[in-house]
Amino acid sequence: xxxxxxxxFGTWYGRxxxxxxxxxxxxxxxxxxxxxRSAGLRSSGAGTAPARPARRVSEIxxxxxxxxxxxxxxxxxxxxxxxxVAGQVLLLSGExxxxxxxxxxxxxxSVAAHTGRxxxxxxxxxxxxxxxxxxxxxxxxxEHLYLADGHDLGEAIGQLDALGPQVALLIVDSxxxxxxxxxxxxxxxxxxxxxxxxxxxxxxxARGVPCCLVGQVTKESTVAGPRALEHVVDTTVALEGDRxxxxxxLRVVKNRFGPADEVACxxxxxxxxxxxxxxxxxxxxxxxxxxxxxxxxVTVEGRRPLLAEMQALVSPTTAPNPRxxxxxxxxxxxxxxxxxxxxxxxxxxxxxxxxxxxVGGMRSSDPGSDLAICLAIASAAWGTPLPAEVAAIxxxxxxxxxxxxxxxxxxxxxxxxxxxxxxxxxxxTKETVPLGRSAQYVVEVATLRQAVDALRVxxxxxxxxxxxxxxxxxxxxx
Length: 478
What we know:
This protein is an alpha/beta fold. It is 29% helix and 21% strand.
């Protein structure tokens, strides 16, 4: 049996034929089929009397939900649906150095300080001295926060028993480093991970203690171990971020007690993870006067609209193959938008280098930013800045049509909240925008040509004004 993916083979191989890992096949003894009651089920089809018979759905009363346990981090609580539920098991995954341990240590300290109940942090990767050093750095010094290290599941449960039934929260870092003595195999193997996760889940449900598990990830950015691990837990969240920036996105992948598409923003600092209640300011440039080659759009991360600034730089070149540089965006989609802008909007780009990027280390694949990218490219090609009050939302097709995107009404409301008084949107958007303050700032455009013509008219007006000023100057000299 492969300890990495769980595949079974009739003989030993040096490499698993399913996952491709080397030296992961281990011999396992398969138990012989029993001869008792369970063995006869296949032939007779008879079953055993259930301990609890099935009941009509109308007879089952809805369970009264108890108060949620707030972690003290408003953004963290928001993506969980208001906090942790009693007995909830949460799996937090992320790349090394993303800040998983720091985030949970900050949350553990906040829970311990607000509830006055013990919070147990068990680490299989670091010693208690290393954890305490990080805890002092992030000011996690509550007297109700307990630290423990070890690799044995029985010892971890023993630490929990020693603190009594009043434990408010249990954190295990990480589930791949804890092993059970009742199961054969190395720590982190399929059998061990499933046994540890299943045991901790049953323990959390029986005692009503929320449990947070840290999960390591593979080079493909997926949770290490079997995919069944994500089915065992109640909530799966992923901490994403680029090592070159301090921005971290906490994305909910699965949640049985709340929405499954929420996103929270944090900033990793020397003092720990700091909440960013208004992340739009991180994704747009702050300047007094608008510059050419920039356009504001509204992207959606999960269910949260965020303002983002699309930037473009267009430079003449004599090279036979002009360069196309992209940062934070899909390069193939930007190449398509450059072709559409030149062919259908009349912007000359075939003999120019074109560079497109986002601000603040943001990565966006949202088609709703297509119109803003095209306008930024046109603005950079003409050297004409867009007005600071303009924002653009919409998907650009190969025919040059502007199409509607999801959550257009929320996007428009976010743009208006940030002070934008002209929001370029596809035709038909006014039907989705609630009547009121936001609707009066909506400007519908059907095609990319129509959107760029507004910029072209502004450019002509500026050129005429500049020429008039130059003429007045020459007249004064004469």
